[in-house]
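Forum: Protein Structure Q&A
Topic: Joint prediction for protein chains with partners

I've read a bunch of threads here and the consensus seems to be that you should model interacting components together rather than docking separate models afterwards. I'd like to see that in practice. Below is the full input, 597 residues plus whatever partners are listed. Could one of the regulars post the assembled result?
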Amino acid sequence: MGKYVEMIRIRFLMMLAYRTNYYTGILIYAINISAYYFLWSAIYGGKSSMQGMSLGQMTTYVAISWLARAFYFNNLDREIAMEIRDGKIATELIRPYSYLGMKAVQGLGEGLFRLFFLSLPGLLVVSLFLPLEFPEHAKTWLSFGLSLLFSFIIFSELNLLAGVVTFFTFRNEGLLRAKRFIIDLFSGLILPLSFYPDWAQQLMAYMPFQAISYIPSMIITESFQGAAVRDGLLLQAAWCVLLWFPIVLLWWVAKKRLVVQGG
Amino acid sequence: MNAIEVEQLRKEFKVHKSRSGLVGAFRDLWTRRYATIRAVDGISFAVRQGEIVGYIGENGAGKSTTIKMLTGILTPTSGRIVVNGMNPHKEREKFVRTIGVVFGQRSQLWWDIAVQESFRLLKKVYRVPDEQYRRHMGEVIEMLDIGPLLDKPVRKLSLGQRMRCELAAALIHNPPLLFLDEPTIGLDVLVKLNIRQFLKQLNERYGTTILLTTHDMSDIEALCERVIMLDEGKIIYDGSLGQLKEKWGQGKRISFTFVEEATLVALQELTTGLDVNWKQGEQPNVWVAHVPSGGVPEVVSRVAARYPLQDIHIHEVPTEEIIRNIYQEGAANG
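Posted by a regular:
Agreed with the consensus. Here's the joint model:
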C-alpha cells in the first residue's frame, strides 16, 4: 500500500515541478466554462428550458462535466504507448509491482491533483459570476462522489486497454486519438445525451462511454432522481467489472510477446 | 551455489520485413511478410555467487536480449533459466526484489523531480526498513560521492552524475545480484574509474554478484576475471580473461619508424624464416610487425642492422584487438 501512496505523492511533485503549467491550468478551466456558458445562453435565447433543463442547470451540467473530467481524465494510454515505443517499459518490469496497477495509481494521483488544485479553484472563480445551481442534499453529493470514482475506473480501464493494444501494434496514435474523441462525444461531456436523436441514444446505451460523464453529471444536477440514480450507479459498476476481463487477458498475452525496442 | 544457471536458452523474434518502394508499401498494407530472427541461440552457462562476469559481444550479438530474459522482462522462446533460485518471468514480482539492474542507455529515475524523491519511492517499493536504508544507502551514497546531488532534479545532472545516481538507485534494496547493461557508455575516464572502483568495493564488501555488458574492454580488464563472449546469439568463449589473451593475443607488436620509406616486400624478405606479420602503420615510413613472444630480439636486430631507424615501440596486443580478431576470424570455441 505504501508504494502506491508514495507514487501518488510523486505524481503530485511532478505536476508541481512546473509552476506556469499549474497556474495556467486554473485559468484554462475558468475560460473553458465561461465560453460554454456564453454559447449555451445564445442557444437558449429567451427560452426558459430545453429538454427539461434550465439554462442554470445546463451551465452547472457543463461546469460539473469538466470538473469531473479533470478527475477521471488521464493519458495512461499514451504513456503506455510511449513507454513501449521507446523501450522504457523494461525499467518498469524490473520493479516488484504490477505495471498496470501502478499506472492506474499514477492516473489517480494526477486526477486527484487536478481535481483539488486546478478545477476546484477554477470552479470557485467561475461561480463568482456565473449562475451555477448546486444541490443541497448531502445524498446527491455522496452519489456523485461514488459515481465519479466509477467514472475514473471506467475511463482508466479503457485507457489501459488501448495502451496494452500497443504491445501488438507498436504504433497506434491514430487509434488513441480516435478513442479520445469518441469518449468526449459519446460520454455526454460536450452535449447531454438527452439532446441526441433517439437511435443514437439507444446505440449509446450499449456502450461504456455514457457511464463516464453523463451519469455523474445527471446525478449532480439532480436530473436523475431516486431509482434513476441507483440504476446509473449499477450500470457504472457493471462496466467497471466487465472491462476488467479483456485487460487481464490482453496483458497476459502481451507480456509473452513483448519486444523491447532500442537495445 | 550458483547465482545464475542457464541451459539451452533461446529467444526468437518475429520481425516484419518491408517490401521496397511505394508499390511494396501498398502491398504491405494487405499482406505482411515475417522473418524469424534468433537473437539468442541455445546458450548455456552458470555464474557462481560473488563472481564478476563480463558479457561481451558486438552490437546485435544478443547480450541485451539475454540480460532481459535473465531479469524477467522477456519471456524465453525455450530453455531453462534459474536466477537466485527462481524462474525470472514466472515469479517476476518476487524475483525482481533480489536483483538490481542498470541500463546505461535509459534512466530509471524520474526526470523532473529530485533524486532523493526517486530514492524514497524505490525505498517504499522494495519495502526497505528505515534503519537498513540509512546504514546501507549511507555507505553507497558516500562511496559514489553523490550526497550533494540528492536534492537536484535529474534533468539538471550531467551524464556522469546521473549514472552514479542510477547505480545507487539500483542498490537501494542491497540486491545480491546486479545486472549492468553498458553502465559506462558515454562517460569520461574519471567517472569510469570511479564507477569501476565502486563496483569492486561492492563486490568485496557485500559479495554482490555482477554481470555486466560493455563495449569498453578496459571495464572488463579492470573488473572481470571471467568473460563470456557472444557472437550471433551463440557463446564463442567462456573462461578467464587471462586465458583469452594467452590464446588469442600471443606475441608482441613492434612498431618501427624508419628514416626513409620501406616496402613490404623488402621487409618480408628481411625476416624470412621468422614468423612475422607486417602491416603498414599510419604513416608511409611506419611499419608494424606482429611477432611471437620469443621472436622480438631477432626481428629487432635484423631490421636495425639493415635500416636506419627513428624510433621503436614494443607493446602487447590490446584486448580490444584480440576481441576484434576473434570476431573477424569467426572464432572456434574457446
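The radius of gyration of chain A is 19 Å.
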